[in-house]
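TA notes. Do not distribute before section.
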Amino acid sequence: MKSSSAFSLIELMLVMAIIGILLTLWLPQAQQYFERSRSIICMNNLRQTGVIVNNYISDHNYFYPEVETDPANPVYLQNTLPGMQDTFQPYGLSQNLLRCPSDMAANKQYNLRGTSYEWRPFIDDENYNAPQIYTRRGPHTVSPRRLRLVTDIDAVHFGRQNALYADGHVLAITTTP
């Protein structure tokens, strides 16, 4: 009697079906892992940007610069201000730090503005030690740990934005419409 060590067609199809089932179970989880890794890269970009901003303000008597958030739609109409790239480039800010991988995957803001991040205009020309935000009730001094400097333009991380705070920490925040 002759013994065959080859697979039969049914055995081969059964193995392929099991692999297919395992892949369908693993694929959504893998996409979450990939998105989480892109979010971590984005947070790292923001942390490095925070170091660059702190180097800038230490060289400018602890005052934040005036930065235009969107040159196509300027905040300050009287004069043209430089964007983040122009302001912080001498301190090491590069195009790579202005690219959020999740924004690049969605092909959104970076292609339109040249950055995936938005400078918050609330702190333009404010003192680092006592930044003030102006509201309807008047000026309020805000702690650097509560003051957002830079955020993702869009909520591209599981419906959240990563935000750099004035004291250097980065958090994922839920946005409100």
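Switch to the second chain here.
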Amino acid sequence: MKKTLLFILTSALFLALQACEISDNEVKPTDPVTRIFETGDFERNYVPIDIRQTPDGGYLMLASVALADSDFQGIYLFKADKEGLVEWEHLADNYVNPVSELLPDGSNGTLFRLVAMDKLQLGTHLLSVDVSGGASLTSVAYYPEMVYPLAAAQVGGGYAFLHWDQESKSSMKLTRLNGSTVQWSRSYDIYEDVEARIMAHLTRQTQPVVPFRTGTVTSGVFYFNGYNNFTLSLTFVDANTGDQIGVLNGTRYASGIMQIAPMAENKLALARYREDGSMVYAPAAPVDTRGTATARDLPGNALPELSPYAQVFIKKGSVDDQKIVLYASTTRNGRISLFAYDEGGTLLGTRYLGSGNRFEAGGVVFTDDGGLAVQGRTYVAGRFARLCLFKLSPDDLKEIAAGVSAQ
């Protein structure tokens, strides 16, 4: 892989592709700083997936990238220091289609896991990366029977894997692992063959990419967002048995839930999209995990400014002891939008990042200094999709939560 070059910009300035570093530009201490990572490889387009802060104050970033020798997306990892300078990068050789976020593994903060597909056998790998050990990715466990993984999450002391049932072609499977041992695996009928839809999703041949998700709602209740009963549905299951206990239906495959974050008091922070791709935020949606309902009936805030079918990232955090729910997404005019809500669903404030070129949201993390780091994607010279990083200070985050507009 060609050596990574680094471009440094302020949020108010964007320069076209140049063959030099522009770190001498004056940056005010209060300005969010954007770093754009240019690999020098014009054939690769990167899709951001997740960002995590590391114990040294730096960042581990996960993305997918198109491969010349596969129809599936490759795995791209890189580590940056606290200033955003690249320390190492890694393009995986044997694994494709990362389906999980970066999952913390242990208390020291240097180990992370993720779930992806075997490049040739199509089974599910549980992978590990040690940020202190340099550019490497190791398979901790391999499950050849779980072909075509679609989503994964940490649940309790183990993991939940969502995958397609290749044998029936008309059902989804959710598997719970206790550690790395299978505790149960259950099928959920779709009642029609969805192989074409699954293949189109895995090879990124359709838009939007289907928002397959899984995780924990509350103690004893898991969820998966996927195909169920002719519909893209948010399905709730018993964590001990896998039995379905409730469902929040979309409208066939045309609309449904885009993102989910569990809240207290049987509420969920949701983003859902309509048939035309427009987005609705529901930051404190009352959802009965043991009932049957329809996503379009949930109250929420319509956001026509967002790009149709835009990816949404939801993170919970706190600012000066006030708990907030932060939504990150992408506007129609190519800026990253941040919406902060309190736990009751009241909008506290907004902020928009990026100018002069198109920027798209790709992951958010609250940082140890009380600020915020936002991973994204932009298009260098208007053509080449590259990863970028915004670092917001604690004062920036306080201003967002207080409803203070950026100058």
